[in-house]
Write a structure and sequence with these properties.
Oligomer: single chain
Number of strands: 6
Order of helices and strands: EEHHEEEHHHEH
CATH architecture: 2-Layer Sandwich
Structural class: alpha+beta
Shape: globular
Helix content: 40-55%
Strand content: 15-25%
Radius of gyration: 19 Å
Length: 195
């Protein structure tokens, strides 16, 4: 798409991350080339961005981090109200007004009755699917309609290495704990057999 001034606006949204107050990623996805230039691990990326956002608060409660450049992508931070969730919007160029519109619209989703009291640590596939559907089919489309529109231009689509949601994260976490428990049980059994 081309704006009235002849400038291409497609791909204005490069990356989106929504995470809980404790740093649990609710949704993470690249929409352009961000996954080729950034972290491949969504949990590591959300932890890194969460730490970056909270660092100024350790110095003074009056400080906050609004933006940081990560490779060619401008990352803008926002705490949604009242839920305490954080939203990170990555854009190919610095457009604070676009980021602000995305922050406002995603904050409305998180404040909606359907998602307000959700414990994202124990998410069901129905709730996660509903959240992604509202986010991708209406919220981002509406937020970006005056800024070139919304389109997933990541060449890897859903196979993007930084695409995750709370349900996928929960599944990965459970697999890791199962492996740890299995290793511990095997070690304990070996120790018993040596007695």
């Amino acid at each position: 798409m081309v704006a009235d001034d002849g400038v291409s606006l497609m791909g204005v949204l490069e990356y989106l991350l929504v995470y809980t107050e404790s740093g649990l990623p609710i949704y993470s996805k690249c929409y352009g080339t961000f996954c080729k230039t950034a972290f491949r691990n969504p949990e590591l990326l959300s932890g890194f961005l969460s730490a970056l956002q909270t660092l100024p608060l350790t110095i003074s409660s009056e400080l906050s981090l609004e933006a940081v450049k990560l490779g060619p992508t401008q990352m803008r931070f926002s705490k949604s109200i009242p839920s305490g969730h954080s939203i990170v919007v990555g854009m190919g160029e610095d457009k604070p007004e676009v980021a602000e519109r995305i922050f406002e619209d995603i904050s409305k989703i998180l404040a909606a009755d359907r998602f307000l009291n959700v414990d994202w640590s124990y998410i069901t596939s129905d709730i996660m699917n509903d959240f992604e559907k509202v986010l991708l089919k209406s919220t981002l489309v509406n937020a970006l309609k005056d800024h070139g529109g919304f389109e997933d231009q990541c060449s890897l689509g859903d196979q993007c290495p930084i695409h995750t949601n709370a349900l996928l994260y929960k599944t990965r976490r459970e697999k890791v704990w199962s492996l740890i428990k299995g290793k511990y049980a095997a070690l304990r059994e070996r120790m018993r057999s040596k007695e």
